Amino acid sequence: LQWWGLVALTLISGSAVLKIPSVSVNFSISDVFTLTAAVVFGPAAGTALVAIDTLVISARLKRTTGLTLEKFLFNAAAPPVAMWISAVVFFRASGIAPLYLHPLGVDVVGPWLLVFAGLYFVLNTFPIAVVVALHERANLLSIWRKHFQNLWFTYIAGAPGTPFVVFALQLGTYGLVILALPLLLAVILHFAYRNATGRVADQLFHLAEV
Question: Which end of the chain has fewer CB atoms at under 10 Å, N or C?
Answer without folding.
Answer: C
